[in-house]
Amino acid sequence: MRATIAPVLAVAALILTWGRDLPPPLIVLVALLLAAAVLSAVHHAEVVAHKVGEPFGSLVLAVAVTIIEVALIVTLMISGGAKTQSLARDTVFAAVMITCNGLLGLSLLVGAARRRIAVFNPEGSGGAFATVITIATLSLVLPNFTTSRPGPQFSPAQLAFAAVTSLALYALFVTVQTRRHRDYFLPITTAGEVIDSEEHVDPPTERAALTSLGLLLLALVGVVGLAKGVSPAIEKAVGDLGMPQAVVGVVIALLVLLPETIAAVRAAARDRVQTSLNLAIGSAMASIGLTIPAIAIAMIWLPGPLLLGLGGTQMVLLALTVVVGTLTIVPGRANVLQGGIHLSLLAVFLFLAASP
């Protein structure tokens, strides 16, 4: 019952508080509703995932979160002025670091802590990670080295090319994940058994699954909308602490990715590490592969330049994530050490975001 009521209350609170300055007591209430919406989103995502099976279940949550995240970025860019010129870059990079280090590291740590070794399919996870690396480099690194426009930005033609390429790679990955090589993305237990469905649990009815899908979308709207509602309080706190403006994007990205984080940890605790990696790497890919094309279209009417190129420190962190992630995924087996390394990289990213 709580999983049904929470999305409705979250959206109602979003409608009542949209565009208003909230006093501290209301900010606390909105934060509580935000947490309830996150837990509700996780529940309904698991219901849908159980109905459609892997890897479709992971794909549903990753795409749903990313589509609403794109809407949030565009909304903030429309109303934010010059200070939001780098918002898309900061949000996408934060999502990549949180998913490829935080979600991946936490999943490996939980899976390996319970069963000593976390086992997954390197063919599927490796292909997904390679796609993330390619799209991230194309969208976030190359703008620093092109010469058609001054600064870390693409020309309109370059931006259009990057958008089409990102979307094409994402579409190709989804085809491979869901059709041609679906078995590469199915969970593997530590005993080496491939799991094509949940054991001993009857799947939900079609009506229950469709209801959960609708409530999942409603909950995600509430999560992202309420995250935007509390963002002025976050911005004020960040400013009072003397931190860079980019920290706001990091905090909002952390809030938006909470449903996937909880779902990934739950899957790892059930010895479904591959499902956790599908969520982690798939979310990073969806974030870039869908955000860049959407922002490219939005730039037709949005004023001002779009700054995409990462700074030197960010490029070093991205390169280190690529190297460590490759060494982690290639063997298809990991222990708590690899999980700890990825979590330490996330900690470095968060620390340098607050203290560059």
From TrEMBL:
Keywords: Membrane, Transmembrane, Transmembrane helix. The lineage of its organism: Bacteria, Bacillati, Actinomycetota, Actinomycetes, Micromonosporales. It is found in: Membrane. It comes from Paractinoplanes globisporus. It holds the Pfam family Na_Ca_ex. It comes from the Bacteria. The keyword Transmembrane applies. This is Calcium:proton antiporter. Residues 26-178, 212-352 form the Sodium/calcium exchanger membrane region domain. The keyword Iron does not apply. Signal peptide: none annotated. It is a multi-pass membrane protein.
